[in-house]
Amino acid sequence: MQVARKAESFVGVIIPVLNEAHVLADSVVRVQRFVRNLTDYRCRIVIVDNGSTDGTGRVARELASEHRDVDYLHLDHKGRGRALRYAWQSSDADIMCYMDVDLSTDLEELPRLLGAIRDDGYDIAIGSRLMRESVTTRSTSREIISRGYNLILKVVLRNSFSDAQCGFKAVSMEVVDCIVPRVQDQSWFFDTELLVLAERAGYRIKEIPVVWAEDDDSRVNVVRTGWDDLKGIFRLRWHFWRHSVLRERTYARSRQHGVAIEDDPSEPQGG
After folding, report:
1. Which member of 21, 74, 238, 264 lies 3.0 to 4.6 Å from 55 by CB, making a disulfide possible if both were Cys?
2. Average pLDDT of the chain, as a whole number
3. Helices and strands in the chain: count of H runs, count of E runs
4. Distance between CA atoms of 127 and 172, rounded to whole angstroms?
5. Distance (Å, rounded) from C-alpha 34 to C-alpha 22?
């Protein structure tokens, strides 16, 4: 019996950039060469420039004009979360993914990321640097910070995924439509908030071990980003606690008056 072959899936490959003119062209060409060999997918690379001042926009426009499978979007304001939100919600792709412009994660893992959604029925697929099978190269201080952050996240919000911040993720368009509008953060905490809200709403998340190497030229302010992320964690904790209390009060009143109610599916479940 001959098994019908699945139709080709359309994938939006998002590369958010901020002042990356010196590496952008090389990275885009590398990604382009790789995705053109993915026989089950039709990929469009989307460069999202969020507030660059170093000529990144000029390089991105040139790439988009030279290559039919490259698009360029510009935002005046900074924020990786803002860039991802805008690109994802502007797309008609079947699957959306993103990767950091430094390509710290080995591109060989991309088919597994996309396949988790296309073939295995997951809603979100994320690269994890903290799985036992992963191979990572980074400084001791960055390793401690990453593990510490994800430990705090688990203790406070009781999530099941191991690495919230790896810049290598894919999402279904259902997640883009239903979860992304509920994410408040516009910057680095966007990833964590998206994953926490999706998991609490019952969406399935697949973690994939990766080969990952730290970029020595990273522009991330670790201290400021870490502080903003901690504030984001406790904002979500307060949000869940407040809605848990409100549900309990509503339930108690309904019991008192003999009225049956249902949980609001638009709100994250759990406390």
Report:
1. 21
2. 89
3. 8, 9
4. 15
5. 21
Position 27 confidence tier, pLDDT thresholds 50, 70, 90: very high
Quote the Cα angle for 21-142-147, to 5°: 125
Residue the block writes with tokens 């249902």: 262
From residue 101, how far is each of 30, 53, 57, 83, 219 by CA, in Å? 10, 16, 14, 13, 12
Contact status, residue 75 vs residue 51, Cβ threshold 8 Å: yes
Cα distances (angstroms) measured from residue 189 to each of 84, 92, 122, 176: 12, 25, 22, 16
Asked if residue 93 lies in contact with residue 15, where contact means CB atoms within 8 angstroms, the answer is no
Distance of CA 268 to the CA centre of its chain: 18
**DSSP letter string over 90-155?**
T---SEEEEE-TT--B-GGGHHHHHHHHHTT--SEEEEESSSTT-EEE--HHHHHHHHHHHHHHHH
Buried b (16+ CB within 10 A) or exposed e, 62-82: ebbeeeeebbbbbbeeebbbb
Q: How far apart are CA 228 and CA 93, in angstroms?
A: 31
70-75 and 9-17 beta bridge pairing: unpaired
The Cα–Cα gap between 147 and 136 comes to 13
The catalytic site residues sit at 191
Does the reported pTM lie above 0.90? Answer: no
Tell me the pLDDT tens digit for each residue of 66-110.
999 999 999 999 999 999 999 999 999 999 999 999 999 999 999
